[in-house]
Amino acid sequence: LQENPLPSSLVVTLSSDADIYYVKQLITGFSSFVEDVVYGGTLLDKVSKFSSFVFYFGWGLVALLSSATCMIVINTIKLTIMNRSEEITIMKLVGATDSFVMGPFLLEGFFLGGGASLLAIVVIHFSFRFIIQKIVLFLPFLPYNLVLNQLGNIYFIVLLWGCLLCFIGAFFSF
């Protein structure tokens, strides 16, 4: 062949997705040189909308489950207080302060949250490993970049959140 049968092309790579529409309009503006502009803007919009939906749905689910957990802890501690009402009355008659009486129940809430969080961490750990093994098996081209350090941070946050949430529930049960 004397000349290239394929049209000339130019590949533009952006450092930020925020400017994609501006760059598309800018390149399309050179209509005498540009026949067609192919870009992933519609796919970017769909992925962005899905990502924000998952983000807000996830945080809504966290808020819903956290409030349910707090209510369950409040009811559990109230039942414990009702079962020990005789002992609490005796302690009050002897001269125990409110904080002295409340202390064991706050610790109970804290340890309930810690135990439940540790159970959740074990479930997360093993199910995460199982899911990652299946994903790598079926989709080997999908990048897997979650490091053990990041999992440790997630486990720490789960433990801290569980202890704090149950402690707050125990505090509001009085």
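[next item in queue]
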Amino acid sequence: IPALVFLYREDIDKLYGLADIVISRGGAGMLFELQFFQKKSIVIPFDFGDRNTQHQINGAYEMAKENPHLFIVQRQQNFQDGARELDTNLNRLL
């Protein structure tokens, strides 16, 4: 899968236009940008098992509930068993 991985870009609007699917963390700003640009997304919220990261988990699930055609939430710990769930989710969005 051709991919571009980055932390920050000034030209994010152009990249959203080019992307078929976005894989991202679950920060509120990012979730609202993905919704604004109507980008199909797999959201992997930070989850360290403490109250400091609960907002990303809650926000991601709320956004997926409101926009099931755009968002799939995949929990970070699910990658311990390999990439099978990620592959399944990519295929669902494509």
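[queue empty]
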